[in-house]
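Hi R.,

Here's the input for the 4'-phosphopantetheine complex you asked about:
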Amino acid sequence: MPSKLAIYPGSFDPVTNGHIDIIVRGLKIFDRIVVGILNNPAKNALFSVEERKEMLRASLKGFTSVEIDTFDGLLVDYALQRGAQAILRGMRAVSDFEYEFQMALMNRRLNREIQTVFLMTGLRWIFTSSSIIKEAARFGGNINGMVPKIVQHKLKQKFTPASHLP
Ligand code: PNS
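And here is the predicted structure with 4'-phosphopantetheine in place:
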């Protein structure tokens, strides 16, 4: 039987435990998952693509069926190029629905061979987003347990003035 591959695309600026949860659960459906970091210089990201890649790699160490990659251009073209059958996305609250629905329909219009598969976010992660975590971390808020340890460390580094570092 041919192995099933999904692309899990996103900005991952930075990766959260909500993302990790989707990947781990996605592996129960797909044989392999390629995490595709969108390389979009127009978007004002906190972390460089290389930093995001490094954090994802460290957070998913030991998951041999997961690959971390970057892409630019259209997601469906990238999925086709990688030989994926599906795009995997997590869905949180109702607020995600409209954007996700629009994107899934557009992607389907662009390539009908690639299916979008949604997994409902685990209840624990329903309010977790990269943006809200960055906001909390920027002002010294406690983000313990919301992101992998390496991300917590990197956020602390980003938001600690150089003069305060040991
Ligand atoms: O984590 P995000 O920012 O919600 O991820 C959005 C992402 C990367 C999945 C989306 O912006 C994307 O796929 N961009 C590539 C361009 C594209 O194919 N857009 C959708 C159809 S127009």
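One thing worth noting: The longest helix spans residues 94-110.

Cheers,
M.
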